[in-house]
Amino acid sequence: MMQELIAAIDLGSNSFRLQVGRIVNDQIYPLDGLKESVRLAAGLSPGKLLDAASQQRGLVALQRFNERLRGFAPEAVRAVATNTLRVAKNSPAFLVKAEAALGVPIEVIAGREEARLIYVGVAHTLPNPHRQQLVVDIGGGSTEFIIGKSFEPLQLGSLYMGCVHYSLEYFPQGRIDKHCLREAEMAARGELQTIAHAYRETGWEDAVGSSGSAKALAEILEQNGFSDSGITREGLERLRAALLRAGSLDRLQLAGLRSDRLPVLLGGFSIMSAVFQEFGLERMVFSEGALRLGVLYDLLGRYHHHDLRDATVASFVSRYGIDRKQAEEVGATACFLLSRLLPETKDPEHPDRRFLQWAAMLHEIGISVAHSSYHKHSAYILANADMPGFSRMDQGRLARVVLAHRGKLERVGAIDPDSRDWLLIVCLRLAALIHRARDGRGIPPIDIERNGRDFVVGVADGWLQKLPLTAASIEEEQRQWQSVGRKLLLRTKPVLLEAE
Question: Can you give the residue ranges of every domain in the chain?
Answer without folding.
Answer: 3-110+294-300, 126-287, 307-493
